[in-house]
Amino acid sequence: MQNVLNDLSTLFDEAKNKSEFDFVLTLMNYRGMGTHKLTTNLYEWFDAIEFYKQLYGQHAGKEKTRIAALLYSTFFENSDFYNIVGSLCRVKLGYKGSSYLFWKTRKYERLLGIGEKQEALFELLFDAGKQSIIDFFKQNQFKEIRNTFFHSAYALSEDEYILHDTEPIYIEGLGISSFNVNDFFYPKVDNVIAFFDTFKHLYLDAFASYTQDKVVVGNFPNPCNITIIGAPDGLKGFKIKNAVQFYGQWHDSGIWYDPQFDMYAGHNITFNMPNVETIEIDDQLRRYENKNDIHQSDVEFHNLVEKVSDRKIPSEIARATNLLLKFGSLRKQKMDNEENLFKKRSFPKYILPFYKKAIEIGSELFDTTPIKTAITELEQQ
After folding, report:
1. CB 109 within 8 A of CB 70
2. Out of 24-38, 115-129, 167-181, which region has the weakest mean confidence (pLDDT)?
3. Of 196, 81, 79, residue with least CA distance to 140
4. How far apart are CA 30 and CA 39, in angstroms?
5. What is the DSSP letter of 185?
6. DSSP per residue, 45-60
7. Which residues of 165-197 are buried (b: 16+ CB within 10 A; e: fewer)?
8. 3-class SS at 193?
9. Is residue 67 within 8 Å of 58, Cβ to Cβ?
10. Cis-peptide, bond into residue 221, ω within 30° of zero
11. What local confidence, expressed as pLDDT, does residue 32 receive?
């Protein structure tokens, strides 16, 4: 676990060193006017898990297992947690973060599930060089535990957690319908607690570290001097002096804390959501254009392609189509180089979604005849 916690700590440092203004925006996690502890679920998540930790340490037997399952399941649910970790990765890589990074599906009709948020996060963590954090999720998070607990589809003995009405849980490649809480579950919960404690400590310490105003250079949206507002109790926002002019007079813009109403408020700024989405999509397209392959999960990439498809902007569609062909061709090349016949036969199911999506979104911009021929050959295999 120490490597995991070290990677988490260095991620905060690396993001701050890359762009302190974007690091501060990530800490603020601003979504609109309001008290920062109420416009986000993050602080309730902090308080709830601290409460569950106390109960976890005070009980034994079945009561301890129930509290362990509640703590464990709650930890993996929080969207703000995924947004902040993902945004720190993006800032480290030279892109902008987002308060809505892993929030809803590509078509915005429902909230993302835990697995979807994690799959989208994995590729960012890989790009940021945080493989140990990926390993933490893969080795400690089991959706079957969360699902059975929250749906009350489990039973307990003194030492066993028994799953009902669900797929088996796979431990070391073996599918089973129960597990020993002392040998298997409690160590996972302890790892979750260690990760939570470190994340909370890093986040709150970073927030509290801004005890004085500090001027940095950042993009909002163009390069300018930005004053990060500090106070004895920590970060209070940011301000760009003399940024806008009304009736011949200059005014500051930014987002800062108003003690009279106990809330953070935007001043003299315009949130143009279509433009914000355009900037974020351009960032994502550039990141994938600079990648040599998709290494962990293609969930985030296909989510991006769906957004581009919905927007119907030709320049974005052209870039997304080229990326689909790029990553499909990389997998085709791996198939051609594979000497094991059985492994070779498994490749088309990974290649075809890229090629078919390229035809679906790019047929009006490109000659798709060669890709259609390749699809026919792959389907025959």
Report:
1. no
2. 24-38
3. 196
4. 8
5. I
6. HHHHHHHHHHHHHH--
7. eeeebeeeeeeeebbebeebbbebbebbbebbe
8. helix
9. no
10. yes
11. 62
Q: What percentage of the chain reaches a pLDDT higher than 90?
A: 48
Q: Residue 322 is encoded by which pair of tokens? A: 């080229």
Highest mean pLDDT among 33-42, 197-206, 261-270, 300-309: 197-206
- What digits encode the pLDDT tens for the residues 285-299? 989 998 999 988 888
Q: Is the pLDDT of residue 190 over 90?
A: yes
Query: 120 is written with which tokens?
Result: 């989208």
Report the candidate in 104, 142, 143, 101 with the shortest Cα–Cα distance to residue 125. 101
Pairing of strands 174-176, 178-180: unpaired
* Cβ contact 364:321 at 8 Å: no
> Which one-letter amino acid corresponds to residue 344?
K
Instruction: Tell me which DSSP letter residue 347 carries.
Output: S
Query: Which ranges of the chain does DSSP label H, i.e. alpha helix?
Result: 2-18, 20-28, 42-58, 61-75, 79-92, 114-127, 131-140, 143-150, 186-208, 273-289, 299-311, 314-337, 341-346, 348-362, 369-380
DSSP 167: P
Any idea which residue has 């390229």 for tokens? Answer: 358
Q: What is the DSSP letter of 217?
A: E
In angstroms, the CA 60 to CA 94 distance is 47
Six-digit token string for 205: 């310490």
Question: Residue 270 pLDDT > 70, yes or no?
Answer: no
Amino acid at 60: A
The residues near 119 (Cβ < 8 Å, ≥ 6 apart) are 297, 299, 300
Contact between 325 and 354 under an 8 Å Cβ cutoff? The reply is yes
The tokens for 59 are 């009980």
| CA atoms within 13 A of residue 150's CA, in its CB half-sphere | 12
- 3-state SS assignment for residue 94: coil
pLDDT value at 144 more than 60: yes
Instruction: For residue range 201-247, list pLDDT tens digits in order.
Output: 999 999 999 999 999 998 877 788 999 999 999 999 898 886 676 77
